[in-house]
Amino acid sequence: GLILGIESSCDETAAAVVRAGSTALSNVVASQMSLHANYGGVVPELASREHLRNIVPVVREALAQAKVALADLDAVAVTEGPGLAGALLVGITYAKALSFGLGKPLVAVNHLEGHIHAVLLEARQRAGVPMELPLLALVVSGGHTHLYLAEQAANDTWTYRNVGRTVDDAAGEAYDKVAKLLGLGYPGGPWIDALAPHGNPRAVPFAFGQIKTRATKAAQAEHSKHSSSQKPGKPAPAFDFSFSGIKTAARRYVETHHMKPGIEYRHAELAANPQIKPQSPEAVQLCNPQTLDLIASFQHAVVGNLLRQTFAAAEAFGARGIIVSGGVAANRELRRRFQAEADRRSLPVAFPSLALSTDNAAMIAAAAWPKFLAGNFAPEDLGATPQLRLGQQ
Ligand code: ATP
Ligand code: MG
Ligand code: FE
C-alpha cells in the first residue's frame, strides 16, 4: 500500500511517499519561511504563487527519493483544510489531476488529523510504544491549543471529538507575546525554553483562575454515562484553556517592577542582535535575574495548565495514551513533565521528532491510510475548506 501525500495548507509545499501508513519512504518539504519573514507573517498571494512553482518538483523529488514510479502508487492523499484557500487549492488541484490521470483513488485529509498521525507514524516505528485507541491528543501551537479524543469507528477509521480548546490565545501565541514584551527574539518559544532553566519557577506566582467552561456535547454525553449520581442540571465541563490572563499578569508584573526592556535591563540587545541564539551563554548573561525568574515562572504556569487539563481529560475519557503535537510540543519542560506524569499513571505518551513536528506530507499520507483501507475516498469535485474543523465539537 503506497500512498503519495501532498500538503500545501500554509507556507510549506510538501510531498511524501508512505507505505502502509507506517513507513515513510520519502518526506520532501520546500519551506517558504524566509520569503515570508520579510513581511512578518505569511502573505497568502505569495504563498499560492510559491506552491505553484514548487508543487511539480517537490512531488517529483518525493517519488525519486522513494524510488517509486507514479504507476506504483495505490492512492493520492491531500490536505483539504484547514488553511489558506488559495494555498490549499494548489495541492488539491494537483492531487485531483494526478488521481484522475492515474485512475487511483483520492483521499482527503484534515491537516490537524495529519499532525496527530505524524506522532503515531513514529511511535509505530519505535518498538515498545504501543498506542491504542482511545487516545487523547493535545495539538498545541501558535494557532491551536486543542484537545481531541481519537476513537475507533466501526470501519476501523478514526473519529475525533474536540473535548477542549483555548477560549482566547493559543499557548504558542502567549509564548510569543511574553517574549516580545521582554524584548526577546521571534518566535518566542525557543527563547523562553532556553532561558527558563536559569530562573526560579516559583518566584512569580501566576494563578490560573477557574475558566468559565462551555459544555461540549461530547463531554456531556461522557459525563452522563459515567456519573449517574451527579446532580441534574449541572453541565459537565469541557477541558478548556485560557492564556490571555497569564499574558496580562506578566505585563503587569513587568510594569510594576519597572522592567522596561532596553532601559534598566538590556533585553533589547537580544532582539537587536541576531548572532545571539537562544541557547548561547550570552543570552543568559544579558538577562537580569528578575527577568529569568519571570520567564521560568511563566513557563512553569503554562506547562502546568496544559498538563493539568490534558491529564484530567485523559482520565475522564479513559484514554489509553497521550499524543502531543504542534510547535509548542518542542518545549523541553513540557516534554519532561508530560513524560513524568504519564509514567506515574502508566500511560504511554508520544511527541513528534523535529522533522515531523513542522508541516509535512508524510503525516498526510499516514492519516490517509485507514481511510484508504475503508474505501473512504474523496469526491471528484473535492474543494478546499479553509475553516475545516476536526471532529464533533
Ligand atoms: P498552526 O500550525 O496552528 O497554524 P503555527 O504555524 O504558528 O500555527 P507551529 O509552526 O506549529 O504553529 O508552531 C509555532 C509556535 O510554537 C510558535 O508560537 C512558537 O513560539 C512555538 N514554539 C516553538 N518552539 C517552542 C519551544 N521550544 N517552546 C515553546 N514554544 C515553542
Ligand atoms: Mg507554522
Ligand atoms: Fe500545521
Automatic annotation (TrEMBL):
Its cofactor is Fe(2+). Transmembrane segments: none annotated. Residues 24-365 form the Gcp-like domain. It comes from the Bacteria. One of its GO terms (cellular component) is cytoplasm. GO terms for molecular function: iron ion binding; tRNA N(6)-L-threonylcarbamoyladenine synthase activity. It is an enzyme of class 2 (transferase). GO terms for biological process: tRNA threonylcarbamoyladenosine modification. Binds 1 Fe(2+) ion per subunit. Fe cation binds at H111, H115, D359. Keywords: Acyltransferase, Cytoplasm, Iron, Metal-binding, Transferase, tRNA processing. Residues 217-237 are annotated as: Disordered. Its EC number is 2.3.1.234. It is found in: Cytoplasm. Belongs to the KAE1 / TsaD family. NCBIfam families: gcp_kae1, T6A_TsaD_YgjD. PANTHER family: TRNA N6-ADENOSINE THREONYLCARBAMOYLTRANSFERASE, TRNA N6-ADENOSINE THREONYLCARBAMOYLTRANSFERASE, MITOCHONDRIAL. Required for the formation of a threonylcarbamoyl group on adenosine at position 37 (t(6)A37) in tRNAs that read codons beginning with adenine. Is involved in the transfer of the threonylcarbamoyl moiety of threonylcarbamoyl-AMP (TC-AMP) to the N6 group of A37, together with TsaE and TsaB. TsaD likely plays a direct catalytic role in this reaction. This is tRNA N6-adenosine threonylcarbamoyltransferase. It comes from Edaphobacter acidisoli. The gene is tsaD.
